[in-house]
Write a structure and sequence with these properties.
- Helix 11 crosses helix 20 and helix 18 crosses helix 20.
- By secondary structure, this protein is mostly helical.
- Helix content is 67%, strand content 2%.
- The radius of gyration is 29 Å and the shape is elongated.
- It starts with a helix and ends in a 12-residue tail after the last helix.
- It contains 30 helices and six strands.
- The strands form three sheets. The protein has a two-stranded parallel ribbon. A two-stranded antiparallel ribbon has the order 2-3.
């Protein structure tokens, strides 16, 4: 019986080339030693942060982005003011902080990026990381266009008089363009203003009159649509790429490439400026806004709560969605950054403070934005509801228009656009690093060529981004943002939580204790089991149930663009079941076991040690599709599970490293 069991055991080992029948004992020992050396080289090749503050500032820059400035204030205004703020901070504490803690812990403990880490935690969900990387690549293609618009405005701000304060043929102005600054100057001269200042006599003879208030388009908004974007009537009329925007897009990618050329070693130095400077600017704008005339009128819309709104499901759903977008959970950036940190780093402090600082920066941005909007509404004689906007319309039309009415507008324009540029670059750094780390983790053999990988990723994203430099570019940015950066990120966060529950929350809590030297609070363990998975699942279902056709300024996008948007959102998600199905079917073919038996084995948590450095030596460094798990056969004699190579070889490798080559004679092995 023992001999038969031993024969079955040897047959299983001989399936791999690593244990060929013709291999001698010396070959086996040499292969084990070589595999151990390869593991050490792989571990040594992975970068680490130069200091904890570079890591912290990089994560902070990722958690504070343009969404804090252009989306949070508008949602607060439209969903009950202070009531929305209360809901936002409640979700931030109960859902946001546990998810940030989860992602930082996953990356730090395993030392792996999102592309491969979930394969280690639960083999069936190995495709989740690949889906996240693909999704982030799609996001970086359009997000860089927002950075390019910021660069365009930054260069235009260095003129003596900011160009969006005027109308005229040189700025490709529309017939309804209205400059309040020029209008006031023309009135002082006794003329009639209609883009240009005409004498009263000439205006009477030619029938020229002042544009009615209900038809006026501010010079800043007209500058954005007619001069910067040259916006077409619909997404179906794209035209050719604009050379000015193409140059700005190329420059934005060049900046990203140069800042990331040495990975986190170079980007870690840049974030000292790109993270701290915009927060200082935001603070300056908040104080400046508080001193403006009619500022209180705007702030009142932001902070005065409508308590009835707290009973509205929409308020809580939107608050939860905004927490996800602000903290960027589900995007893989936090896992990527944490994978480069030291194993014993106290990320518990980081998770809590990062989340709270992100929320406070949103609050600060709300005060800065609404005090400025109140000032502008007072100047125009309009209610705040007629002035407030969200998205690009806020940061590239309303806010620049308000800047033209301030003393020394050039200074404020430069400061504002530098702030936006830094916010955009910080987020872009994390997104690109996530994509590049995913590639180098999937194919460790190219890790030494990381500089070229970054160049290829930036070049490919630039070529795709040319679509956004056309006359329909704004529509395409809106489409990508609406579909790609919405419910898929929430779904990824839900699946991350699912993987941890399969892996075992108590087991994961013990892993955290290994790193920080103390037990994690039961408060977070309870949230991981209950509120976090339930809220993320509910949010995904609510997003699907309340989905509305995409529109922009009242114009509903054509049906074919809606289909393209759903395709962009769903394709990365489909990689998750496709990956699982591929490996399960491959395993069924290799082991001749039933489909359900293999599926059950893949669904259970991995028994391997996922701690960084504890890598399986049989894993080929050049293969991205190596099977994440082999199902060990069951002895027909004893009914017990036979050990597989992933359980045997790491133990042999440890002994080999400590005691030198092993001489193993399987003929003398007793069972």
């Amino acid at each position: 019986m023992a001999q038969k069991l031993l024969d079955l055991f040897k047959q299983r080992l001989n399936k791999r080339a690593f244990f060929k029948r013709s291999q001698t004992e010396a070959d086996l020992n040499s292969s084990l030693v070589e595999a151990g050396q390869r593991d050490r080289r792989t571990e040594e090749q992975r970068e680490t942060w130069t200091s904890r503050w570079e890591y912290y500032l990089s994560c902070l820059g990722y958690a504070i982005g343009l969404g804090n400035v252009w989306r949070f204030p508008y949602l607060a205004y439209s969903l009950g003011g202070g009531a929305f703020v209360i809901a936002y901070f409640a979700v931030l504490i109960l859902v946001g902080i546990p998810l940030v803690l989860l992602e930082l812990a996953i990356g730090q403990y395993t030392g792996l990026g999102p592309a491969v880490v979930f394969q280690k935690l639960c083999p069936l969900f190995g495709g989740l990381g690949v889906a996240i990387v693909v999704n982030q690549f799609l996001i970086c293609t359009y997000y860089s266009m927002v950075v390019a618009w910021t660069l365009f405005y930054l260069f235009a701000s260095f003129r003596g008089d900011v160009p969006w304060s005027h109308c005229g043929p040189a700025l490709s102005s529309s017939s309804l363009c209205f400059s309040d600054q020029d209008f006031q100057a023309c009135n002082r001269l006794g003329g009639v203003y209609n883009q240009l200042c005409f004498t009263g006599e000439f205006a009477q003879q030619t029938g020229i009159s002042v544009i009615p208030p209900s038809l006026r388009v501010s010079s800043a908004e007209d500058y954005l649509n007619q001069y910067v974007l040259k916006l077409s009537p619909s997404i179906s009329e794209p035209g050719s790429p604009d050379w000015r925007l193409t140059l700005c897009l190329a420059l934005s990618w060049l900046i990203c490439f140069l800042c990331l050329i040495k990975g986190i070693k170079s980007s870690g130095k840049v974030v000292w400026f790109t993270t701290i400077f915009p927060l200082i600017c935001l603070l300056i704008f908040a104080f400046r806004g508080a001193t403006l005339e009619n500022a209180l009128m705007g702030v009142r819309y932001f902070i005065v709560p409508d308590w009835n709104q707290l009973a509205s499901l929409t308020v809580w759903v939107q608050a939860a969605a905004q927490v996800f977008f602000n903290l960027s959970v589900g995007g893989g950036g936090l896992i990527t950054y944490a994978s480069y940190s030291k194993f014993s780093h106290n990320f518990y402090f980081d998770a809590v403070t990062l989340s709270l600082l992100s929320g406070l920066s949103s609050l600060l941005a709300g005060f800065a934005v609404f005090s400025t909007i109140g000032f502008m509404a007072g100047h125009l004689g309009l209610p705040v509801s007629r002035v407030v906007r969200e998205g690009p319309g806020l940061v590239f039309a309303i806010f620049p228009d308000a800047i033209t009415r301030m003393p020394v507008p050039t200074f404020w324009a430069i400061l504002f656009n530098l702030m936006l540029l830094c916010f955009g670059l910080d987020t872009q750094f994390a997104i690109i690093e996530t994509v590049v780390t995913g590639i180098t983790d999937l194919w460790p053999g190219v890790r030494n060529s990381k500089r070229w990988i970054i160049l290829i990723v930036c070049s490919c994203a630039f070529l795709i981004g040319l679509l956004f430099t056309t006359k329909a570019g704004l529509y395409w940015v809106r489409l990508f943002d609406y579909f790609v950066a919405s419910w898929p990120l929430i779904l990824f966060a839900f699946l991350e939580m699912t993987v941890i529950l399969i892996y075992g929350a108590p087991r994961f809590a013990r892993n955290i204790t290994e790193m920080i030297g103390r037990n994690i609070s039961y408060f977070y363990r309870i949230l991981w089991y209950t509120l976090v998975p339930l809220s993320t699942l509910f949010l995904v279902l609510a997003s699907w149930a309340t989905h509305q056709p995409l529109d922009y300024n009242g114009m509903v996008f054509p049906h074919w663009t809606q289909a393209v948007g759903w395709l962009l959102a769903v394709l990365p998600v489909l990689l998750i079941p496709a990956y699982a199905l591929y490996h399960v079917l491959t395993e069924v073919e290799d082991t001749q076991q039933s489909f359900m038996a293999v599926l059950r084995a893949y669904l259970v948590s991995s028994s391997a040690d996922i701690r960084r450095g504890a890598k399986e030596v049989l894993e080929s460094p050049g293969s991205a599709l190596a099977s994440p798990r082999r199902i060990p056969p069951v002895s027909s004699i004893t009914g017990r599970r036979m050990p597989n190579e992933s359980e045997l070889v790491p133990a042999l490798t440890v002994i080999s490293r400590a005691q030198g080559p092993l001489n193993i004679d399987f003929r003398e092995t007793h069972v």
